[in-house]
Amino acid sequence: MQAKLAFRLTDSMKTKPVSDLNKKMIKLVVTNCESRKTQVLTIDPDWLDDLEIHFLSDVGNDSELNPYKIFKDVIRKKLENGVKATLHDEKSLAYKAINQGGVKSETVFGSFNVKFGQRLRNELKKQKEAYENRLNLLTNASLDAQNYLTLEAEKKHLEEQLNQTQTNLQNTQQSITNLQTEIQAKEQNIIQLKTPDLKAKLANLKEQKGQLLTNITNLESNLEQKSEELARSLKKEQKNKTEILALKTELDSINLLLEKAKEEFKKANSKIKELQKDKKKLSEQAQSKEAELLNQIQGLNIQNTNLTKQSAALKILAEKRKADLAQEKQALIALAKKKIQNKKETSQLLEQLQAS
After folding, report:
1. Which end of the chain is more exposed for a tag (fewer CB within 10 A), N or C?
2. d(Cα 256, Cα 273) in Å, to the nearest integer?
3. What pLDDT is stored for residue 48 in this prediction?
């Protein structure tokens, strides 16, 4: 339904230039899609595309903004620059069908460089809470629909009571007519009678007549009271019916919003499924990487053990080599001492030989 209305609005906003585009001014013809009334706006050509984009993009995205007031604000800015324009039919029926909740605030454009799409997205973000509230409204509307069925049954019962009351009224009126005829006949008989108890019978008949008149008055009073109660009930029924029709209209709007919410939920669920797949894939990669790291750690532990064993063996060899070197050193020292002793003896022997 909203898409259809947006299409109709789009169609009604088509521009019809009256003069050549090379001139400074052109005329924009705007048609209300419900009343078919038209209005002519004289606008600078440089602003024509911007006006259409601002107006139609708002309607197409179904925001909480008022398309007419946005359009009006842009025109007002041009009025400040001396451009003449006329606006009529502010309460558009087409606008009411799209934005039944009413305008909460009037949005005014900032500078020319402010992007309309950014403002529109900010407004759409505010609708999230409105969706939840309208879900509650949908539940209440369903209950109101059930109450409507109950009211229909009560209405039928009241109509049956009204028919029965009318039948009783007709019977009562017939009874009154018969009693009046009977009273007149008895009065004629009394006049003709010449018996001693004539006065007593006449008094008795008058008493019966008074009682009958009292009963008739009571019946008429009860009938008027029931008629008033029935009229109040019918009036209340009509009021309830009007409220139910309004609730049905609101329910249609809520259903449209629910459809949009369902589409968004589907997209969100699809995105969640994709993220879950990515998470599973990353988890598998992490497990594979963890197993690889564990294998590397085990290999490093084995290498560390081997290096520890090699270090211990080298330490033993070093100590053994150190002991061997110490023994060799002692042997060399002893040999050196022996050579020194031999050298001394040789020197003494040479001295003795020279002396002799």
Report:
1. C
2. 26
3. 42
Q: Which amino acid is at 231?
A: A
Nearest one of 73, 68, 62 to 124, comparing CA atoms: 62
Low-confidence ranges of the chain (pLDDT < 70): 1-149, 186-202, 356
What's the pLDDT at 322? 84
109 near 73, Cβ under 8 Å?
yes
| 87, 73 contact by CB (below 8 A) | no
User: How far apart are the C-alpha atoms of 23 and 194, rounded to whole Å?
Assistant: 116
Q: Where does residue 281 rank: exposed (0-12), middle (13-18), buried (19+ CB within 10 A)?
A: exposed
Domains of the chain, by residue range, sit at 2-124, 130-256
pTM as predicted = 0.23
Residue 125: predicted pLDDT: 52
Using CA atoms, how far apart are residues 56 and 28, in angstroms rounded to an integer?
14
Q: Are strands 38-43 and 26-31 parallel, antiparallel or unpaired?
A: antiparallel
